[in-house]
Amino acid sequence: MKTMLVALVPVLTLSIAAAAYSQPTAHNAVRDYPNRPVRAIVPSVPGGGGDLSARIFASGLSDAFNMPFVIDNRGGAGGTLGTHIAAMALPDGYTVLMGNIASHGINPALFKDLPYHPIRDYAPVSLFGTTPNALVVHPSVPANTLKELIAYSKANPNALRYGSSGVGGSPHLSMELLKTMTGMEMQHVPYKGAGAVLTDLLGGRVQVLSSSLPSQLAYIKSGKLRALAVTSKTRNAQTPDVPTVIEAGVPGYEVIIWYAMFVPAKVPKPIIAKLNATIVQVMAKPEMKARLAQAGIDAATSTPEELAAWVKVEVEKWTRVVKQANVVPEL
Question: Following CA atoms 63, 65, 70, 75 in sequence, which dihedral angle do they give, to the nearest 10 degrees?
């Protein structure tokens, strides 16, 4: 028996060594990442600013890694559905979330019982874009400036209807913030998605909208909608003649729509670092900046730590707005 065990030792040693050699090491996993397509979940339906920015961004990552980053639109429940799906994914770096102001800024402030935690369940990777909302009106509205719109709404309380993509979304809360700061009086008409509200706005069934610039840019440039202001601190290059809300007479008003990549919380840090470094390289390319700028989006990057801090600031801001406007969420 002893002789048999001694004879088996070299065989067992070789077998163990071969097995160890065949298993991918953590170093190899990072070095080879990604070696298959990556699913990029967008927590909204196709057609909005979040979808457009994610598609441009994903194409840049696909080129940089020479591997597809495949967009997977998972809209529903105000963006919570797709965001939750991403949190539950295998933490191997092959599912990423194209998060935004709604998924990690507004929804945590709006809903008490979210199926995910914006900080505990995700690892932040980097910002990849920012854009303002554009405050637009149907051409039939007798207002060519924001001051005129404010005056008209006060003189004709609730005569105007403003649309939104749903209760608690950025279009809704940005208008409620503006109403709180100016005393405007308008009726809120919530829709299920950005496409539906734009259709009714173009048809004049609602008259006012504050929504992401990329989703409205073509209509502004064609004259089908009249832009009165953008919600950022500075003007946007695609609409240089449109003043900011601050310039239009509402000091202190600012709403920035932001887009960022997150991954499930337990994704290895070396993969996060590799993603972040590649994002910084991709977003620095003139052609990527130009593609985003043409859509009304400013390229942006951050460290994971900066993004984590930004999420906390946004949640605090929108918690105050939700409370002040007494917004009751719908899920």
Answer: -100
The pTM (predicted TM-score) of the whole model is 0.84
Instruction: Give CA torsion, residues 305, 51, 278, 282, to 10 deg.
Output: -120
Contact 179, 186 (CB under 8 A): yes
The whole-angstrom separation of Cα 100 and Cα 129 is 9
Q: Answer yes or no: CATH 3.40.190.150 is held by domain 36-130+257-325.
A: yes
Question: Coil, strand or helix: which one is 37?
Answer: coil
Angle at 59 between CA 55 and CA 65, to 5 degrees: 140
SS3 281: helix
Written as six digits, the tokens of 182 are: 């100016």
- With tokens 């994903």, the residue in question is 58
Q: pLDDT tens digit string along 148-179?
A: 999 999 999 999 999 998 888 889 999 999 99
Token reading at 177: 């913030």
Q: Residue ranges of the domains in the chain?
A: 36-130+257-325, 132-230
Cα–Cα distance for residue pair 141/78, rounded to 1 Å? 29
Structure token pair of residue 129: 């874009």
Q: Which residues are within 8 A (CB) of 250 and not within 5 positions of it... i.e. 6 or more apart? A: 146, 178, 181, 182
3-state secondary structure of 141: coil
For 255-309, the pLDDT digits (tens) are 999 999 999 999 999 999 999 999 999 999 999 999 999 999 999 999 999 999 9
> Is the domain defined by 132-230 classed in CATH 3.40.50.720?
no
